[in-house]
Amino acid sequence: QVLVGLMLAIAPRIVVPRLGIGRSILYGSMLFAAGQLATAFAPTPATFVLAIFASAVGCACIPALVATIAEQGGPAERGAILGGVGSLTELCGALGNPLYSQIFAYFISDRAPLKLPGAHFIAAALFLLMACVSSLSFSRTI
Q1: What does residue 110 show for φ and ψ, rounded to 5 degrees?
Q2: What is the Cα–Cα distance from 38 to 118, expressed in whole angstroms?
Q3: What angle is formed at CA 61 by the lines to CA 56 and CA 67, rounded to 5 degrees?
Q4: Closest alpha carbon to 59 in 24, 93, 91, 90
Q5: Please, what is the Cα angle at 51 between 48 and 56, to 5 degrees?
Q6: How many other CB atoms are there within 10 angstroms of residue 80's CB atom?
Q7: SS3 73
Q8: What one-character DSSP code corresponds to residue 115?
Q9: Cα–Cα dist 28/131, whole Å
Q10: Under a CB-based contact definition with an 8 Å cutoff, are residues 7 and 59 in contact?
Q11: Model confidence over 109-142: pLDDT tens digits?
């Protein structure tokens, strides 16, 4: 988590000015998804750390997305918009954490059709790929 936190502080300052907001959202979410998939199938601790690093760099999409959402309202509305984004973030955490735990528990249990301890990372990658698809039309407008 320290690596992700550091990259969340550093990567947007490097990536967003070079790619722009729209491409940072699109490419960042794609890299984030690829990092999650790589994490799911990492065969060694070293490849696991590299996959987490890729995910962390992909996290540059998060501040770019939040900035874009905040710009959708006027100056007087931005606080409410950011509050709504924060509430949605908390809701996603409240729903996602138990979901990922259940996915992990199922795919390491004897009931699973195959043992796949990284299944929760695959689920996260699928959600990120849905975000990529939804941002495709958006990235063309910026």
Answers
A1: -75, -15
A2: 9
A3: 135
A4: 24
A5: 125
A6: 10
A7: coil
A8: -
A9: 11
A10: yes
A11: 999 999 999 999 999 999 999 988 887 766 555 5
